[in-house]
């Protein structure tokens, strides 16, 4: 998504103008307009940098994947404050991330508890 977000900002930053129109709280709606849309290139650039950092953390050595899962889940939870429509994406994404984290991180924990196996 980092590339898509940067592409949209470069092409027409005003595309993001109405993103928070259905925010669940007034501070989300006003903060988006007053802060993010005041300098969308900078703020969406920071968002894209965060997305890249999370993606790289998934690929990194321990403990970075655990941090990446926590950050990605936290990001989607925060994203839900932008309105009920976002929940259509965020809830399944959170569910998928939780399942993937349990699989990936649980597999690591299982390997740590079980004796090492040798290939035959």
The helical percent reads over 70%
Largest sheet: none
Taken together, the total number of domains comes to 1
> How would you describe the shape?
globular
The whole-angstrom Rg is: 18 Å
Low-confidence stretches: none
- How large is the share of residues in beta strands? under 5%
Q: What are the secondary-structure elements, in order, as H or E?
A: HHHHH
Q: What can you tell me about this protein's structure?
A:
The protein is mostly helical. It has one domain. The chain is built from five helices and no strands. It is globular. The mean pLDDT is 91.
Summarize the structure.
This protein has 120 residues and is mainly alpha-helical. 73% of the residues lie in helices and 0% in strands. α3 (40-59) packs antiparallel against α4 (64-79) and α4 (64-79) packs antiparallel against α5 (84-113).
List keywords for this structure.
single chain; 0% strand; mainly alpha
Helices and strands in order:
Elements: H1 2-12, H2 26-36, H3 40-59, H4 64-79, H5 84-113
């Amino acid at each position: 998504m980092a590339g898509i977000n940067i592409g949209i900002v470069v092409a027409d930053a005003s595309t993001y103008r109405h993103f928070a129109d259905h925010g669940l709280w007034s501070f989300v709606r006003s903060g988006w307009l007053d802060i993010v849309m005041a300098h969308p290139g900078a703020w969406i650039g920071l968002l894209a940098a965060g997305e890249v950092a999370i993606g790289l953390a998934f690929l990194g050595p321990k403990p970075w994947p655990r941090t990446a899962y926590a950050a990605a889940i936290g990001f989607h939870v925060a994203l839900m404050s932008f309105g009920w429509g976002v929940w259509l994406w965020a809830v399944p994404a959170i569910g998928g991330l939780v399942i993937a984290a349990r699989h990936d991180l649980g597999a690591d924990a299982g390997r740590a508890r079980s004796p090492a196996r040798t290939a035959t």
